[in-house]
Design goal:
With 126 residues, the chain is an all-beta fold. The chain has a domain of 70 residues: SH3 type barrels. 0% of the residues lie in helices and 34% in strands. A hairpin with a 5-residue loop joins strand 8 and strand 9. It is elongated, with a radius of gyration of 18 Å. The protein starts with 27 loop residues before the first strand and ends in a 12-residue tail after the last strand. The mean pLDDT is 87.
Length: 126
């Protein structure tokens, strides 16, 4: 039986620490598995503890809400739900999906390099 962490919302999480993810907030990605296969979008949020990402316009869900102080109208809210990070692939600058490797520059910075083309992948928001 897996051990649970306190405050995990009932989800079992590994106690090995947080995994490093191949995508980060702001990256352009393409969905390669699931109902939304082929869709492209920007990573809105990365959740390393669960190895999941929230991608703009992908895995849309509806929540029926009753009126409250924050939402006096109530009604049906549409939002993006997280998907597993293994189901998305990073897009390189020319818009093709690629795997990445890391290269340490002469000044000590780590840079992501496209395996497909060998060109550097710019930092999101840069």
């Amino acid at each position: 039986m897996p051990r649970r962490t306190i405050g995990s919302g009932g989800h079992a999480r590994a106690h090995h620490g947080v995994r490093k993810m191949h995508v980060r907030k702001g990256d352009r990605v393409r969905v390669i598995r699931g109902d939304d296969v082929g869709k492209e979008g920007t990573v809105l949020r990365a959740i390393p503890a669960d190895n999941r990402v929230v991608v703009e316009g992908v895995n849309m869900r509806k929540r029926h809400t009753r009126p409250s102080n924050t939402n006096p109208e109530g009604g049906i809210l549409t939002f993006e739900a997280p998907i597993h990070a293994s189901n998305v692939m990073l897009l390189d600058p020319d818009g093709e999906p690629t795997r990445t490797r890391r290269q340490i520059e002469s000044d000590g910075r780590k840079e992501r390099i496209s395996v497909r083309t060998g060109s550097p992948i710019p930092e999101p928001g840069a």
